[in-house]
Structures are given as C-alpha cells and as structure tokens.
Amino acid sequence: xxxxxxxxxxxxxxxxxxxxxxxxxxxxxxxxxxxxxxxxxxxxxxxxxxxxxxxxxxxxxxxxxxxxxxxxxxxxxxxxxxxxxxxxxxxxxxxxxxxxxxxxxxxxxxxxxxxxxxxxxxxxxxxxxxxxxxxxxxxxxxxxxxxxxxxxxxxxxxxxxxxxxxxxxxxxxxxxxxxxxxxxxxxxxxxxxxxxxxxxxxxxxxxxxxxxxxxxxxxxxxxxxxxxxxxxxxxxxxxxxxxxxxxxxxxxxxxxxxxxxxxxxxxxxxxxxxxxxxxxxxxxxxxxxxxxxxxxxxxxxxxxxxxxxxxxxxxxxxxxxxxxxxxxxxxxxxxxxxxxxxxxxxxxxxxxx
Length: 353
Description:
The protein has helices spanning 27-30, 74-77, 97-106, 111-119, 171-181, 186-199, 223-226, 239-264, 268-281, 286-297, 302-315, 318-324, 334-344, and strands at residues 50-55, 62-68, 78-81, 85-91, 128-134, 139-143, 152-156, 159-163, 209-215, 227-233. By secondary structure, it is of the alpha+beta class. It folds into 2 domains: 3-10 and 21-237, 4-Layer Sandwich (Glutamine Phosphoribosylpyrophosphate, subunit 1, domain 1), CATH 3.60.20; 252-344, Serine Threonine Protein Phosphatase 5, Tetratricopeptide repeat (Alpha Horseshoe), CATH 1.25.40.
C-alpha cells in the first residue's frame, strides 16, 4: 500500500484528446506536455498540507504560497510563469504538473482544460491534489478521492485554496476567508491565507517549511524582472511566521532599490523617502543602513551620512575596511572616505589607503 495509507493508484488511461474548442498551438508547446506520467505509477510520499494559487485582479500578478511539514516544500509544490499562470502540486506530489501545466496554459489552454488534460493521463490521479490559475484568472483544482483526510478545496474569484492532511476541516474555509478579506499586494494576501490556515489547525503532522512565489501578470521578456517575490523557508519551527518576516525584509530591499533608482534620477526627496521606509521595515539590518549612508555620501550629503556610518561601524568594524575599498569601483571619492573614517570610525582609525 502506498505511503500514508492511500488506496492504490488507478490504472493509467491513454492520453486524452485535446478539449473541444481548445485553441491550436505550436507542437513544441503541447506535444510533450500532455503525456502519460509513465515514471510515477508508484506515488511519492505526501509532501504537502495547504496552499493557495491566485491572480490579483488589480495588477494581474499571479502567485502561489504553501506550508507543509516537509523539508523544502517550495522546491516541489510552487510553480509560476509571468503572463501564464501559477500551479500548486501536492498530496503525493507529482512535480511535473508544474512545468507541464504552465506549458499548456502558455499554449493557450485555459486552467481548466490544462488541468483536465494532465489529470486524465495520470495513473495516480486519485492521490494527487493540484490547482491551476491562468492569466485570465480562471482557476481549476483537482482533489483526488484517495487524498489523506482532511482534504478538500475552496475556489473563489481568481483563487483556489486546497489542503490535505489537515488537522480539521476548518483550515481551507479559514484560508479562503482570510484571502478575501486581506488588502494590499498579492504576496501579503497569500501569506495572510497561510497564517489563517495555520491558526485554524494546519497540518496534522506539524510544520516545517513554506514558500511564496509571485510573478507579473504580463511577461516583460526579461525573466529576472518578471519574478516579483520568490521566498522559501526550507526548515524552520514556525515557517509561516518566518515567511512573513522574510517578506518584510524583501519589501525593505525593494525600497532600497527604489531609493537607489531615485538617486540616479537626482530625485533626493524620493530617495530619502524610500531609504526611510526601508529602515523602518528593517531597522536592525546593517546592510540597509550602510548602503543608505553610502548613497547619501556619494550624492553630496556627507553630513547626513555620518550618523548612519557611526551606527554601522560601532556594530562591526569590518564595515570600516569595506568603506576604504569603495574608491576603486568609484562608489566614493578618496576625500569622502577619509572624512567618513576619521569622523565616523574614531580618531584612531588609519586613513584610507
């Protein structure tokens, strides 16, 4: 009997025909996607508990978030592609649903058609739990009849919440309510859903890892810009709380990047707003404090930078040596470095070399 006590998987069906009305697509996008899961007749162990996939109706952004009592759940469950969709594949998880589902949705198939096509050729469909959301906000979800209880899903406008091995049957409804009520960017709303799921009972086994992935609603052609949030907690006693903390740090660094961009535009007022916002979100992060100081010093605000340099140097003297090394790449002028070291590091410090 498969791990977890589930019933044996169903016998594999032949590959399904294309759904009626599905738009034609280049063979290289679909030919390999709708294929039998030939190497997965024996299900893997159950690696997941609860997740959410969603599209933000305001921005079009697409995302997926998950928590599990399993190491590195994000490396298995969460998949997304800008302008295409997001996927959560769990229970006795088959990772192939991620790339194959995205491939089908990219070819023009809806979330429903893509999921149906893949489930129909999966010999272990009865122990799978998979959810798709496409770039139009259509959602589709499959909860196999042999998934470990409590198992179920709830769909809403542009989102799907699904779970298995829950402590009770209140987890999924609590997640759906939290997502509907939450405000702000999609990433924060997804984490709010995970927090509600954990508060309602969570995974009957406990908790270990979590992940959050958000991509743009429209692809830019620059993949490094399309992935807006990509955070994982691999092994932690409170993974959702840690995921929330990491998201806050992520937002702080976004403000730092925006501040640097404003500096390049010579918009000092905007830059200072972003730097202050970053410091408020992560007040103990020396990296943020230090580069804020460097940006000020390199843009004619040396006096404003000195209190920040003092804070960093007092915490760790290695930053003093780093400051001395900023002349070569042109980040600070030699005379500025000498002033910073003399006035922020103390009179006994050696001059810049």
